[in-house]
Design brief:
The protein is mainly alpha-helical. It is built from 11 helices and no strands.
């Protein structure tokens, strides 16, 4: 099941029960759940202990740590020329340092190529890359979203109001409360 991080806890409990019923009949059933890291965090919660104890979690890091290699490979696959003819080495380094996922790389590489074309610039430079990158890619809200958490999910996890989480994400909370919530997020295993 894809997007399993969005499944309600009751559904996970029923899947566990289905597996038990199949096992009682002398058969086997394996359920593979795929989702954001939120799924792993949900399975660790005490309320999900019975299901989490029966689960094997495999973390797929994607291109994490290999963004540079991925960009070079992507350019080799998509062009007849050397990658240096399309992007300067500094532009490749800048992209690799700024982005975390293949989807981001492909999106911003496309935007950079379009901007360079409109400007008549070849190869693409770090300045062009910087001009198309969205501000705040590494801020808390997009980071949490990449892990499957929206304001509602974070509020449920921390047992606070959604309005408080939205204020946190917009930088509108007092510093002391920000530190408290960040500490709770870290304790819950969420990336900051």
């Amino acid at each position: 099941m894809d997007e399993a991080h969005a499944l309600p806890g009751k559904t996970l409990t029923e899947l566990k029960r289905l597996m038990e019923l199949v096992h009682q009949q002398g058969n086997r059933l394996a359920v593979i759940l795929a989702g954001h890291p939120k799924l792993q965090h949900a399975l660790r919660r005490p309320a999900m202990e019975e299901i989490g104890a029966r689960a094997s979690v495999f973390t797929l890091e994607g291109i994490k740590g290999y963004q540079h290699d991925y960009i070079v490979w992507l350019l080799e696959q998509c062009t007849d020329s050397q990658g240096d003819a399309v992007l300067t080495p500094e532009a490749v380094d800048f992209l690799a340092a700024s982005l975390a996922t293949p989807l981001q790389v492909e999106q911003y590489l496309t935007l950079a190529l379009e901007a360079a074309y409109r400007a008549g610039q070849k190869p693409v430079t770090p300045e062009i890359i910087a001009s198309v990158l969205a501000t705040g890619l590494d801020e808390l809200e997009p980071t949490l979203a990449r892990h499957g958490y929206n304001a509602r999910a974070v509020a449920e996890l921390l047992h606070v109001r959604q309005a408080e989480i939205r204020a946190l994400l917009r930088g509108r909370l007092p510093a002391g409360r920000v530190q408290e919530l960040q500490q709770e997020l870290r304790a819950a295993g969420l990336p900051l």
